[in-house]
Structures are given as C-alpha cells and as structure tokens.
Design brief:
Distance between the termini: 67 Å
Structural class: alpha+beta
Helix content: 10-25%
Strand content: 25-35%
Largest sheet: 5 strands, antiparallel
Strand order of the largest sheet: 1-10-11-12-13
Number of helices: 6
Number of strands: 29
Radius of gyration: 25 Å
Length: 421
C-alpha cells in the first residue's frame, strides 16, 4: 500500500523534472528555420513557422523602377507609397504579396519597405543601425519564414537577428532590442497616389522572379474573420479584419477604425485629435479607403494601416476612436412584414453592400461574421431558429452596440437554390 501511494508522487516528480529540462534545453534550430531564438524578447512558443522555409519568400534586393506612365497598374490597385528626400515611390501590393520586403535605397539612405499580407500592414524603416562609436551600419533583410502574432519576422543577413515588423524591433540575435526608425508611408489606391504624385516612380514587375503578379493569393483570406495563426492578445471590440489606422506617439497607442472615421471626419475628410500630448490631424479618404496622419505643422507622421486583430495583438492597451451616433437607420427597426431583400443597409456614408446567396451553411455563417466586422461594433442579438439548414425568413436585426453608428438589417432569400455542380 505504501509503495502504491508513493508511485504517483514519484511519477509527478519525474514529469516535473522532464518538463523543466525541456524548458531549459536549447531550442532546435530546425524548428525555427535555423535561427537562434534563445533569450528572444517574445515567448519562444509564440514564434510560428509560416510554411515557407527561410527565403522561401524572396525579398527584392535590386528593385527596378519605372515611371508612372509605364506602371501597368489599374486605378484600383493598392500600393504602398512614400516620399523620401523629395522622391516619391510606389510599391504595388500585387508584387509585395509575393515578396514581402524590398531592400531599397533613396537619396543615399538604405530603406526597408515591407508588407505582411496576413496583417495587412505596410511599413517603411531606415535600414541602418547607429553603434555607440563609429559610422552607421546599413542592414539588408530577408524573410525568415517565421511569424510572431501572425506578423512577418524578417532577418538581418549579417547578424541573423530576427526583426518584428510591427514592433519595428529586433527580437533576437546580436541586434536584439534595437529599434529601427519608421518613415511615413501610405497604403492607398494607385489612382489616388498618382494624382497626388504624378512624377512618382513605381516598382517594376520585372523582379527577376517568376510569379503570377496578376493573382492575389490572399483574396479569400481578407474576406473571412478567421486567422491562420494564433496571436498573443485578442480584442473583440471590432471585427478582426476591420481596417484601422494605428498611431503611436510618445508611448501612447490609438487606433482609428475606418467605420468610425466614416462618422467623425469633417467634409474635408479631416479629424483633429490629441495623442501623447501632441495635436495630430487624421486625413481620411473614404473613396480610396486610406488614411494618414500629420502633426500640427502639416508634416506626415509614421502610422500604419492594419487589420484590427494585428494592431490589437501588438498594442493591448490601445485606445479606440468610437463612432459618432448618427441615427441613420431608424426606419429599419420595424418588426412588421418586410419585403424580400438580399442587401445589408448601413448609413448613407457606408452605402450598400451586396452578399451572394448562401449555398452552404458555413458560407452563411461567414457572411454573418463579415457583416459583424464590417459595419461597426455590432452585436448579433437574435437569429431565427429553424430546423432547416437555412433560415426561410429574416435573420433579424443586428442591433448596434453603445458606440455603433447605425442599425443593421440582414436578410436571406426565402428560398435558397441548390448549389451548382
């Protein structure tokens, strides 16, 4: 009896020792694409392999540029645009989806232009570090194939240090803790950028790599709320794939959801605000779905457009710009007989958005999730319960939360056709 009672204790002690040894054991470089992540600034188990190996997504090291007239871009194509030392350049997202980083040089300065399709984040950073003594050392970056908070981890080729894009900081290696200087960059439509900067240069599709730049490999990912990789912090105040503008000033973080800017900017698309003791001006363009930040003197400030989940994962203490109550959809509150409709109605500023008929129950659920994230901080209060896979009547009203800007009505067809083969 004594031996039996001691056995569980012995087994528990052995398991505890084994767990401690596993924690203390140096990480297997093969698990992290050959990078040493001992003593990383982020939890080791939060570093994920994204799928491709190191440099499986090739960064562009010798980018070629063409004038705007030879850009071969559609007006609605998205680009990352920056102006540095008087030179304007645009980087098509259609190219960055396949490469994620461009090692560029403008006016003698080494720059890193990087885009993470999983987070929707485009950033420009000075690719140089200044040691305590001596001249600044330029850096060249590749794609590690690793992720943190679903965000790309780049690596410095000289030191093998991993760089977190949204942290703007090296999280491992000899450069651990080093922060790079951000440069103002915009994420907008090509038409919008070209109208403002007609002399802009544009990253050429002649990259030296064979890629189908006409295809967006992340098109479906952007339409559903589901993430591909876990994050350390989640915040359900806004739909995960809602577009926001993130801004950090003097250690204070704030994000501006586009649905909130729809209700808060003036006729010129401007919102005056204060963050970190500094006056800032948000310039929002609903037509081109873009926003940028200026200081009180009109000079651009670094900011980042992102999916909400990404900004929240890196800034758990972020403030959020609320909607301005508009009372635009009071007429939709009626619970009487409502004609068949397949659209969702929000405020006139939002316009109307049409949804395909749901052929599958899962697809219908995704539609609902997308609607919840697309309009404003909305709460689903009731869905008609039916034994059939599809509701034959109204899904009912999705009521606004306290800071929402409008009531939302979602309906499904009374009769759903069979899916086509």
């Amino acid at each position: 009896m004594i031996r039996r009672s001691i056995l569980p204790v012995v087994l528990w002690a052995i398991s505890g020792v084994a767990a401690a040894q596993a924690r203390d054991r140096p990480p297997d470089p093969a698990e992290f694409n050959g990078f040493d992540v001992r003593d990383a600034l982020v939890p080791r188990d939060a570093i994920e392999r994204g799928g491709p190996p190191r440099d499986g997504i090739p960064a562009l090291d010798h980018p070629k540029f063409v004038p705007a007239a030879r850009a071969q871009l559609k007006p609605e194509d998205r680009v990352l645009g920056l102006v540095h030392k008087g030179m304007a350049r645009a980087y098509p997202v259609r190219i960055l989806n396949w490469h994620e980083a461009v090692n560029d040089r403008i006016g003698g300065d080494a720059l890193l232009v990087t885009y993470c399709p999983l987070c929707g984040t485009g950033m420009a950073l000075r690719a140089a570090v200044q040691p305590a003594q001596g001249a600044a050392r330029e850096l060249s970056f590749g794609i590690s194939g690793l992720l943190f908070n679903s965000d790309v981890l780049l690596y410095d080729r000289a030191t093998q240090s991993l760089l977190s894009q949204l942290r703007e900081q090296a999280i491992s290696g000899p450069l651990k803790g080093t922060r790079l200087v951000a440069i103002p960059l915009e994420h907008t439509k090509w038409q919008h950028w070209r109208e403002r900067f007609p002399a802009t240069e544009v990253l050429s599709f002649d990259t030296g790599f064979s890629r189908d730049y006409q295809r967006d490999p992340y098109a479906d990912y952007a339409l559903v709320s589901r993430l591909m990789f876990p994050v350390q912090h989640t915040d359900e105040r806004i739909g995960p794939k809602e577009w926001v503008l993130g801004l950090s000033v003097a250690g204070v973080h704030k994000e501006y959801p586009f649905h909130a800017l729809d209700t808060r900017v003036d006729r010129n698309g401007i919102l005056e605000d204060r963050i970190g003791g500094q006056r800032v001006r948000i310039r929002y363009d609903a037509r081109h779905r873009t926003a940028r930040v200026e200081n009180a003197a009109g000079q651009p400030l670094p900011s980042v457009m992102a999916y909400w989940f990404a900004w929240a994962a890196f800034h758990a203490d972020t403030a959020v710009l609320p909607c301005m109550p508009c009372g635009c959809a009071k007429g939709l509150r009626s619970s009487g007989s409502i004609p068949r409709i397949e659209t969702m109605h929000v405020s006139p500023r939002h316009g109307r958005r049409r949804f395909d008929r749901p052929h599958k129950e899962e697809h219908m659920k995704r539609q609902i999730e997308f609607v919840r994230g697309a309009a404003a901080a909305l709460t689903l209060v009731a869905i008609a319960a039916h034994a059939q896979p599809y509701p034959s009547r109204v899904i009912r009203v999705i009521e606004p939360a306290a800071d929402a800007c409008c009531t939302l009505l979602v309906m499904t067809p009374r009769k759903v056709p069979a899916p086509r083969p």
